[in-house]
């Protein structure tokens, strides 16, 4: 009897602890972003699927990113995505032990964000998408025109 109860408890925990049953099929996505050959630090990488919720990641100092579908669920929906990469950010942090982050204007050319021509097809399993961006943001695009 004790064995039966223990087995049932493990089975319930396995089903209940294995994640949210409402999470759609995701593929793990990571990669590297450069702008004119240099790693792009602190850029937002957004994968926007044809249908459904986008996934977002932020590049580290070496330009590496990993997408997050939502808190506790990494990856992106399986399927085709348009990709947008932005360097613009608002000032943040500076409270308590949190480091202050200075505001920065957009430096990535508009063909990689506002008028993106980037795309990717995420498959189940592990995916790596590197983006080697070239060019300079036009003054007109930087001004928001």
Write the layout of secondary structure elements.
Elements: H1 2-17, E1 26-35, E2 38-39, E3 44-49, E4 55-58, E5 64-66, E6 68-70, E7 73-74, E8 76-77, E9 79-86, E10 118-122, E11 125-128, E12 131-133, H2 139-142
Characterization of the model:
The chain is mainly beta and 145 residues long. The chain is 14% helix and 36% strand. The protein has 2 helices and 12 strands. The strands form 3 sheets. Strands 1, 2, 5, 8, 11 and 12 form a 6-stranded mixed sheet that branches. A 4-stranded antiparallel sheet has the order 4-3-9-10, with no helix packed on it. Strand 1 (26-35) and strand 2 form a beta hairpin. The chain is globular. The relative contact order is 0.21. Mean pLDDT is 85; it is low at 1-19.
Structural class: mainly beta
Task: Report helical residue fraction.
Answer: 10-25%
- Spans of at least 5 consecutive residues whose pLDDT stays below 50 are 1-19
Average predicted local confidence, pLDDT? 85
What is the overall number of helices?
2
Report how far the terminal alpha carbons are from each other: 73 Å
- Sheet bearing the most strands, described? 6 strands, mixed
Gyration radius (Cα, Å) is: 20 Å
Q: Label the overall shape.
A: globular
List the helices and strands in order.
HEEEEEEEEEEEEH
Query: What's the number of extended β-strand segments?
Result: 12
Strand content: 35-45%
